[in-house]
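Hey L., structure's done. Input below.
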Amino acid sequence: MIKTYKKEYKMVPLYVFASSENEVQNNMNYCVSKALKKYANCERDLNPTSVRKYEIPNLMWLQCLFSARQAIWSSLQKTIMFCLKLLMSEQACLEELSQTDLIMEPAVLSVLQRYLAAGGSPELAVDKLCENYIAVAQTVNMLAEWLIQTGGDISAIQSHIENHFADLIMRHFDPQKADSIFTEEGKGPDWLLSMIEHQNWRKLIYRLADEYPDCLMLNFTVKMISAAGYQGEITGVATACQQLDVFTGVVKTLIQRIVKCPKDGVDASLISELSSMLAYSRHTFVYGFVVLQNLCDQQYGGSVAKRIMQEIYLKVAPSNSDIIDIVLCLGRAPSYPKAVMALSSMLVKRRLNPADMTTLHRLYSSDDPPPVELIRDLLFLDLLIRALFTNAQSINPDYKSKYAYLLAYSASAYEKWHGSMRTLLNNDDVKSTLQAIERVSLVLETHKGGSDLIGELALLFQCARFPVVSLGLLHWIEMIVLEPGFFERTTESTPVPLALLDEIVNFHPLHHHRVLSLLVELLGQSLSGLDVFARLEVNKMLIDRMIHLLSRGFALPVLEHMSLCLNQQLVDVSLIRYFVTEVLDIVEPPFSREFTTHFLPFLKNQLIVEPFKAGHLESDLIKDFLSHCEEEND
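Output:
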């Protein structure tokens, strides 16, 4: 019986060579079930000991055969898959070797290694590389050499070729393929380092990064450019704001460039660029403003950082109300929630209301007022000045004194803080400032700006010495003189608003730039309601204001604008000649190099100098100035 069972098991290995794995599984199951049936039928003929003795080993042997069959089949599958992969890899490598000018690509060596490792033929690889070598780059270089040989400008030819390639890259750039450079090589390619050394290619990277902000390769390249010291070139907002270290470097560079600007004015484009950078998101704005706020506490350059913050706030806040709440929360304001709530409500709505103004007046007239910096918000001050000086009749008389008090307090109160503790509060000048504001506001409310204001000129001149009053008067002057038909209606040789403008120029140098901007706008008006002679007289009156501005220390900006008028023929040449004559009459040596550089072109222009030859006085003034310039050069 036992031999019969062993003979039955010897038939099992024949089933190992079945045609499929499912068939092997079925045959094995059949064999096992058949053997177990034989064991069950013969159980009564064998004692239990003998059954257990032969049953257990034979079943284990059968299972081992089945496990071996599975291992063989699995190994065979792996071998087949490996062969298929080799064939597919070889075919893929052949397709890559068939690309145009692959031999010029940095990845050609890795493709050849994979092809040879897959069992490819070296001779076939060489044939593929040779067949598909078109020499595009070499042809471009050869054509460029020909153009240079024919007399073409080298820089122009190079720029033309690079711009054409940049357009092609912008048109066909694939961010997924670009990211595969990192996934395949595990690092940035060597050619990327040499690429960022050239400004034209860096500009291309910036354009691509703005177009594809999620591309890993471009973000990595921008980070490399920033680390190489080219943060000042990164002007794209999305490009700079993707990574913290790049954003920090760009903001730092912009702040340094603003600080290094000349004292007579900051480049508006730099402020606009920094504003756009910080306004990209709430996070960037908070980060940038906290940096500037820390700089404000520094002894050196703190006032410059404060001015930068104000300029950015003026550009960003009007179009983004969230910025207002952020700025209010960055200072000491959170300790005074009532004042913050009242101020925030008016700033968001861009409108003053009596209820909130009453709340602020009660807080700031108390023994422990909130920080004065809270009501020195530029938007709030602008609302107050316009309400008191240009639209005073719209304010309820019962609340007007509260409006004036808040403006006077913000303009003249002085305090010192040590951490969260106020160590000094001086509001001695608040009373005199308040009186000046109320008196001027009342005068402007009851007069319309004509000849009836002549009797009030002494009062206006006296009160104009207060900086906040001068700013209010400047708002009023702009509103009056920019009204259509103002010069057609006026009969004075020097209207009262322009006389006030001269007085403001005398005492407030910080208003010079704004005064010049107003005069430039007035000089550019057509004045179609006046005849030619009257227009010349009005323009001559405006030129007189510019000459006065020049005499008060704002010479170079005035000369730059008049030079622009001469070169672009914005005004009649007789007005330029009048300007030159009056300037020569009031200036005397020594002259600065900057002044002579800006003024000499007027004296070398024949349209201006030729009529002077007939007049001895003007001719002598020109000769004296030219001779002094020659002595300075010697």
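The radius of gyration is 43 Å. The first strand starts at residue 414 and ends at 418.

-- N.
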